[in-house]
Design goal:
Elements (H helix, E strand, L loop, with lengths): L4 H6 L5 E3 L8 H9 L3 E5 L6 H12 L7 E6 L8 H10 L4 E6 L6 H6 L3 E6 L2 H10 L3 E5 L14 H11 L4 E4 L5 H10 L3 E4 L1 H4 L8 H9 L5 E4 L7 E4 L2 H11 L8 H4 L1 H10 L22 H35 L1
Parallel strand pairs: 1-2, 1-8, 2-3, 3-4, 4-5, 5-6, 6-7, 7-8
Antiparallel strand pairs: 9-10
Helix pairs in contact: 2-3, 3-4, 8-14
Length: 334
Amino acid sequence: MLTTRFTEMFGVDHPIVQGGMMWVGRAELVAAVANSGALGFLTALTQPTPEALAKEIARTREMTDKPFGVNLTILPSISPPPYEEYRQAIIDSGISIVETAGSNPVDHLPHLKDAGIKVIHKCTSVRHAIKAQLVGVDAVSIDGFECAGHPGEDDVPGLVLIPAAARELEIPIIASGGIADARGLVAALALGAQGVNMGTRFMCTVESPVAQEVKEQIVANSERDTTLIFRTLRNTARVAKNAVSAEVVGIESRGCEFDDIAHLVAGARGRKVFEEGDLDAGIWTSGQSQGLVRDIPPVGELVTRMVHEAEAIITGRLASMVSATAAQAVGARA
């Protein structure tokens, strides 16, 4: 098995994370990820109330006795959800791992830490990761430009972002964005990460709750079939190409305020895509890693395949390169 600081700190078998995804991080998927030996996250705000979240946590526990966590995404809003109540539901349910995202989690950390909860904070830049370390998170998940959802405004891809973060941080780093197979896992470890986070790849599994039409579209798509919206609003999001995202980009190109496109990007419309399979009902998130996704396996098969193939790459092809180089050096000295 691939053992890293991350697997040791969080008590999982494999350095693979299924991060929180709105409308996707539900009990069936998270339990399957946990049972595979990886770390899965329920998405708190997918549930309509803190009480519903507590029930979803209990439902997940009926399917697995292995570690899993809850994602709590904290964003500024005119009518914010009751974050403190969701946080308390997490604590009262005995969850031991939380993934935070969005705003700085500093106001939530004392409560989570007092409850013995380890916190992974999702960041899109080295400067934000350093700040997260300073306020006391246990690990960071660092999102490269390739990721689905919000990649930040710096446009730094993982090949640069991961080692740049590893150079500056002492806490474990989870590499996120553009990773869908064993090659990405091995590359991330080589760049200094202690594990990888996958969203798009886990969306496209048997246990994922999204509609089959969405899964099949991810398989059909290439790495070029995403688009960036909200660029002009400085709130960039990467979503799948479809009629709605094209309309949003067209409106933005002429200059707009958020109110001009709000009706197109409403969360309820994206939820309809995932639940009903109407691919043009709204915008829906997918990363450039969709170009690497070519099947819809059970979660356990996916994780096992990734780990075995990663081990084969490390002990086989890469090791043979080192051996060949050593042999050449010996020959040269002789």
